[in-house]
Amino acid sequence: MKRLFFGLLTALILTACSSNPEFYGMTPQQKEDYSKAIAGEYTGTYVILYNDGGGDEKSVKIKNSQMTITDQTMHSVCFHDYPVSQLSGVVADSVLAEALASAPNVDFLADYHFYDMQDNGDANWGFEPAAIPLTLHYGGADHHLVLKLNSRAYFLLSKASLDAGKPFANQSVFQFAVEGIYEGNTLLQAFDDWQDNSPEYLTYFQLE
After folding, report:
1. Contact, 21 vs 118, CB < 8 A?
2. FRET label pair with 204: which of 2, 72, 85, 129, CA 20 to 30 Å apart?
């Protein structure tokens, strides 16, 4: 998906836009201080972009959505009320798609990490969503599914924005893709976020 490519490119540029910065490992105390600075409740909009492989890209926006970032104790990003039902629009199996369409919203966690920092205090930060477990009843039985997620975006947290109490002033979008739907070790459907003419499913959380 071209939008995903340019989104990832933007993230990489944000990370590398300083003129030949020198990065250093962060101490446990620095990680704790920075995690306290970003911890909190955030309001935004889910922007879901997808296509079923036919080339026509569709979008759904869900405003007043919530995201929570914890401190270093849990070092996680929690996306609240994520609308897994929207995924039904790109699922080929009609029975599974019907079950997904009526699925309730879910909360899920993604780990975050501080990687390194510059002398000026700017730090490299990123979050890594893994999967959403999901139990659906269809075909006369319960099915324990897993939505495999991925995000390859890492960002530069500005020390100035942290000190100003606006930790994500230079990073207003969190993004992740659904890579596939699994039942146990069985792949039910894959989503390709790079190739054309194949189903894709990308979510942005746009901070307000």
Report:
1. yes
2. 72
Closest by Cα among 137, 127, 142, 139 to 203 = 127
Q: Which residues, in sequence order, are bridge partners of residue 77?
A: 69, 110
DSSP 64-121: EEEEEE--TTT-EEEEEEE-GGGGGGG-S-HHHHHHHHTPPPEEEEEEEEEEEEETTS
pLDDT along the chain (208 residues), means of 10: 46 48 88 95 95 80 97 94 95 95 96 92 92 95 96 84 90 90 96 70 92
142-173 burial, b if ≥16 CB within 10 A, otherwise e? eeebbbbbbbebbbbbbbebbeeeebbeebeb
Task: Please state the three-class secondary structure of 109-147 as a single string.
Answer: EEEEEEEEEECCCCEEEEEEECEEEEEEEECCEEEEEEE
CB neighbours of 164 closer than 8 A, spacing ≥ 6? Answer: none
Measure the CA–CA gap between 196 and 187, rounded to whole angstroms.
Answer: 20
Give the pairing type, strands 106-118 and 154-157.
Answer: unpaired
Encoded tokens for 101: 């369409």
